[in-house]
Structure formats: structure tokens, C-alpha cells
Amino acid sequence: MNCFQPADILLPQGVDMNKWAVIACDQFSSEPEYWQRVRAYVGDAPSALHLIFPEAELRQEPEKRIAAIKTQMTAYERSGLFRLLENSFVYVERLLSDGTLRRGLVGRLDLERYDYAAHTDASVRATERTVVERIPPRVRIRENASLELPHVLLLCDDEEDRILSPLASGRQELLYDLDLMEGGGHIRGWLIRDEAADALCGRIEQYEARTRERYAALSGSPMLYAVGDGNHSLATAKACYEALRARLGPEEAKRHPARYALVELENLHDEAQHFEPIHRIVTQTDVPALMEAVRRELGAEEGACLHWVSGNREGELRLDPGLGQITVGILQGFLDRWLEKHPGEIDYIHGEESLRRLAQKENGIGFLLPKVEKDAFFRSIMADGVLPRKTFSMGSARDKRYYLEARRIK
After folding, report:
1. Over 90: is that where the pLDDT of 61 sits?
2. pLDDT tens-digit profile of 167-183?
3. 120-129 tens-digit pLDDT
4. How far apart are CA 296 and CA 286, in angstroms?
5. Does this model's pTM top 0.85?
6. CB 3.0-4.6 Å disulfide test: which of 34, 48, 304, 319 passes with 28?
7. Alpha-carbon distance values, 41 to 36, 37, 150 (Å)
8. What is the CB neighbour count within 10 angstroms for residue 371?
9. Element holding 379 (H helix, E strand)
């Protein structure tokens, strides 16, 4: 069986889709005002907002909120809110905030083929280091939940664009067509099933075979797909499935819907696929002392340029190339060491504008990181393992996946 397959997809019907679709829960984690605006706009209307736990609000009565989420899932199902699309894909066209069109395909990923370890021979791998400490809180949200909503973006290395390009002319039923709230652009989704889904599965199988052959010399077990976004959510799904395997046994677990996770597959080589850096900010710290340590430990006359912002001041620092090849790796290692010995909190910020605004706070400093080149992306992960955690983001914060589809996992 292919790693990526059609799924039994649930889609809301008879609701205001503009209020239903909300952005991935891990976005705007340092901007609770964003989520306050979303809550004010949605109100009590049926919405994916009531089925997720935004990270900006994780400290707000977590146990009560998690229980309410699971209760709401059951209520939506019993009310007949969802339409079931059996054994189907959803082909997605997303008009991004910059006017470019990004294509994707919603289906299910086999978690038995995925591993987030730094070095693995799994067919589906993380692109960045997984922080295992972030998994247990997410498990509490997913375990015993009846539904999952996807914001994971899966990448294929389809240079000739054989999987997605035929779908532009072979569309079936239009499922949704709407503007996304808070400047998220526009999105449309079409149903792909029956003969069209069978043909698509054939193209996916051919892609997997081509990719194995293409990278056979580099790796005995080549990577077929890379998790571009939402890896901690996928790692959480994997952890829940492994717990299920331990409880039910391997054979029974293989037949359970929790063996799979709903994701959106996108082509690494899509022209609209932009890899944006994820910036760092450290707050509640001694900024002058931190900067002195940065210059002392990392600085050099030549090397990659690191741009920093603190209040109304900003500047650049050359990094010693002997410390590593990747700017974010050098900086992250330093910040980890600093925070082990000094007060301060680190956050990971999408977008230069947001970082500059947050860096205006007293006792805070932000670091602007360079873009990641996507050429030889798969090769580098197979050769060197995963990138440092939160190295890049696929597009700007507002271009992240919005929750629309759902799937039963219980």
C-alpha cells in the first residue's frame, strides 16, 4: 500500500464556512489578541475553533478546555453536521496572501511508515528536530478524541509534477470556495473519488517507486515524503497510535482508524512553495549580557550574517564558520546554553513584522534568520538527518493550513 492514501473525510455542511475554517493551532502563539479576534468573529457558530486548542491559550484551564473540545466533537457528530466523503481525496487550491496559488491534496498518511527520529530509514520523516517534551501535552488533547482535524503539510519531491498537475483539469464536485478569515487568502476544494481517485493512487504509487529508484544510491531506504509543517502534531498522532498498538496488539491496531493521520500533500517544487525562516526572540533576559556572550562565543570577522533587533536598536554580527554550516543551528545551540544558566524565555516567531513588534518589549531581543534554500532538500535530510528544530516555515504565518476537513480516529 502507498504511504499516502484516500480517506473517509468528514466535511461540515449547512454552516458558514467562513466561520468554520480557522488557522492552525500553533500559529500566533505569542499574539493572543489574534485568537481573541477570531473568537469574537466566530461566536457560538459551528466552527473548527471549538475543536482545537490554540497554543496561545494553553495555560487557560487546560483540563476543562480539553474536555469541552471532546464534548463538542461528539455533539457535532450527533447533530449530523458532517457529510461523509468515503474513500476520497480533496484537491485544494489556496490563493495565498501574496497572490500566488498553492496546490495540495488531502488524504491519510500511514503512521507505520513515519518516524520523527533524527536519523531513520523510514519512508516518511521529519524535516526538523522533534522536541519530545512537546508531545505529552498534545497527547492529552488527541487521546480519546473522536475526531482529528489536519494542519500537517506533507511534501513530496515530485520534480515532474505528475501527482497534482492532472487534477487541475480533472476536477469533480466543488466542496468549498471561500475567503479565509484574518487575511488568510482564498481556498477552494474539490472532491476526488471513484475512478479519479484510483488513477491518482496509481500516480502516487509510481511516484514512490521513482523516488526509491532515484535515491537508491544515497540511501538503502530512501525518504519518500518529508513533513514540512505540523510535525509535532504528527508525532503526537504517532505516539497515540503506538500506545494503541501496545494496548490492542499489532494486528488489531493495524485495522484501527488511528493508524492513519489526515494530512495535506504538497509538491516541494510547486512555484508557490516558499520556505520562510522562523525567527527567535528571547524575553525577560539581560539583553546586554546576552549580546556580549553572543559576540564572544559566536562572533568572527567573516562568516554568515546574523541580524538582531532589540527595542529601537538593531545590528548585524558575523558568525564564526567553524561553528557550523547552518546559521540557525549555531544560534539555537547558543540560546539553549544561555537559557540553561540565565533567566529568560524563548519563542519562535513567524514573520519579520511580528518579530520586530515583539522585540520592542523591555528586556527582549529578536534574531532574524535567513531563508532556507529548498534545492537538494530531500538529499540533505537523508544524508545528514533532520534540521535544527523550527528552522523554517512553509510560507508566512497567515498562509498556514486552515482547518476544514476532519476524520474519525475512534
Report:
1. no
2. 988 678 999 999 999 99
3. 999 999 998 8
4. 16
5. no
6. 34
7. 9, 6, 22
8. 10
9. helix 377-384
